[in-house]
Amino acid sequence: MKNITLTLTFVLLxxxxxxxxxxxxxxxxxxxxxxxxxFGVFFEDINFGADGGLYAELIxxxxxxxxxxxxxxxxxxxxxxxEENPCFERNPHYVRLKEKGSRRGAGLENEGFRxxxxxxxxxxxxxxxxxxxxxxxxxxxxxxxxxxxxxIGRGEILVNGPDWKKYSVSLKAEETxxxxxxxxxxESPGVADLDHISMFPSETWKNRANGLRKDLVEALYELNPxxxxxxxxxxxxxxxxxxxxxxxxxxxxxxxxxxxxxRWNYTFKHRFxxxxxxxxxxxxxxxxLLSEDLGAEPLPVINCGLACQYESTECVAVDDLGPYxxxxxxxxxxxxxxxxxxxxxxxxDMGHPEPFNLKMIGIGNEQWGPQYPERLKxxxxxxREKHPEIKIVGSSxxxxxxxxxxxxxxxxxxxxxxxxxxxxxxxxxxxxxxxxRYDDYDxxxxxxxxxxxxxxxxxxxxxVRSAIAEAAFMTGLERNADVVELATYAPLFAHMxxxxxxxxxxxxDNLSVVRTPNYYVQQxxxxxxxxxxxxxxxxxxxxxxxxxxxxxxxxxxxSSAVIVKAVNASSEIKExxxxxxxxxxxxxxxxxxxxxxxxxxxxxxxxLDNPNLVVPVFSFVQTDENSFTINARGNSFYVCKLxxx
Length: 645
Description:
The structure is a single chain. By secondary structure, the protein is α+β, with helices and mostly antiparallel strands. 17% of the residues lie in helices and 33% in strands. Strands 1, 2, 27, 28, 29, 30, 31, 32, 33, 34 and 35 form an 11-stranded antiparallel beta sheet that branches. An 8-stranded parallel barrel has the order 3-15-18-19-20-21-22-23, surrounded by 5 helices. Strands 4, 7, 8, 10, 11 and 13 form a 6-stranded antiparallel beta sheet that branches. The model is unreliable at 1-19 (pLDDT under 50). Residues 451-636 form the Alpha-L-arabinofuranosidase C-terminal domain.
């Protein structure tokens, strides 16, 4: 590489009669280094993204701890809820079934999360904790029931003894049904107590118990994310401090993790979901493990002592922040501590004695006003002393500009946080107009984490127009990698039948996954990262919308490749000739890999009926005397990759 100088020239040949436009990239001096974790994903438990989504548990309210304990369940016969001598201290409710010898039996049906998805010939691992107070053996019949009320899978469990024990059975679905349910029936006369009634697909991600839905994790894996932010934004705050996300409740034995009400259940009155809770089955241990699986740096976020300021004025007095700050210190120990430390031992006992190598932590989410920096300061004083190796992420509030934003940025500079979390939920036009947002940012101040962004079309659909606008904006993020170190789209998941907010990157129902055009933009960027920024210009200026074109260029020293990303946000075809200059010799008939995302219809969306309407198309062209040509169609995003010696 050191003996090669390269000038990469874009020549945009417009239609007949129009002037030629020249884009130049110079490799004589490598630009700023790009962080390997720059582009990643942000997970929040919204839109039934955890329970009912990424977390593969099929049964809703499995421990009867919802405020109304039979939510999700239809009891029949003599079935009551009790908490006397419970199986689990932090989940004390269980059901008592009494069968008097009638033919109908006593039992329960569970509806799942907008019903249950079963696949023909697939297995399902069913389990519960049970006891028989009268000590006799009792038989339960377990059934998978289709949407037409036909039984499509069955098994039985024999329960015996007055002490709580775990019982399980494997079931096999005889048909495919996206809207099934579960039924269990006590067939023997007598009394039986049941708790933590659970069912997972036999095939989960990496086939782990208490596992994740395989197809959803595969979609994440194929993004090649560099960072994974979790467990959310606003759920960190909670509608009240009582309902904030508490990471210590989400680790340890899954059966004894206490229930939490999800802050998105009542937030949007037009999308009202009173059955939306968090079992914490998908908890911080699972998030760290998923980060490791994805090859992404974990970025956990914790509460700073403030409830959601949109919903509440509740806050912890500055002098009373000790337990909240200790949660942050203990979290670092949970992730990185030795197996003989208090929280490192918890991690080891869960099956991961090696540290997770946590490098950064977020304090707070979208707070504003003086309440936030005065609390953040207290966290930083402790963390800088105890863990100076950990980067601290502060917040610039819920909007990308305005008085609150300016105030918080100044405070973050004074506090000397490592990164400032900026959020952008704006129109596609805003994203196009702000592709140069970071060109003039202070290079000596804190770095930027573009922590939540999505182009909000008027319809809020995940259409091509919004995806192309995001691609244009991301060329600006990449060009300014010396300022922007991290970037994650938000939100990540949405259940087709139970969403509160859109747009979202990945939509799903109980059996299927829909990857949006926005997903493919993120994938194209994530799979084509660089190690260094290359300066790309048109007539001495950055390419930020001239003639509706946007571009960035990077060098990847690891793969010996020059990668150019180009966006054509117009509806017209642009002929682009890329001329390579500055080489010792020439590149003749070299292969240039082209990935294109395009649609003639800017309103086009992917759907369950047509999930592949808008997908990347792969092709290649060959160089001719150090140049190659592509025809960039309207509403398109291109990644061009050329290997060099």
